[in-house]
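Page 42, continued from yesterday. The earlier attempt failed because a stray header line got pasted into the input along with the sequence. Redoing it now with the clean sequence only.
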Amino acid sequence: MTEIAFHFNAPDKLAYACRFARKLLRAGDLRLAIAGPVELLDQIDPMLWNMAAHDFVAHCRGDSDPALLEASPIVLLPDPRQSPHHDVLLNLWDQVPPGFDRFTRLIEVVGLHDEADRQHARTRWRHYAQHGYALIRHDLEQKVS
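This time it went through. Structure tokens are written below.
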């Protein structure tokens, strides 16, 4: 069964997603799919390439050449069912991502100051809980303090 973790209170949801991707990439043993609306993927794509002058997070878009998709440790795509690998899924959609149960882990990132985002997260939380998933809660605000 997919392990589901909610990362609550992210001051900047996309910046947090980038840091999470970099951390996972540096660990070297898991591959990541980041799923969300094209508009968000368009924002996060250059952020991953330009995290700092000395590092970047190697990734590709879901519409890339199949060989590149297979080789890339991180894939950005609107539909997670199109992911070539199924280790970790980071969800940036407001709703439950289709095919999330194909992944070993699902990460839900929830913004600190966006009440609509928080409400959507509550709905997703209830959905997963009603379907028998054990949910892990990470409060990012407590970690910063």
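Notes: Residues 3-102+109-144 form a domain with the Rossmann fold fold (CATH 3.40.50.10110).
Reminder to self: strip header lines before submitting.
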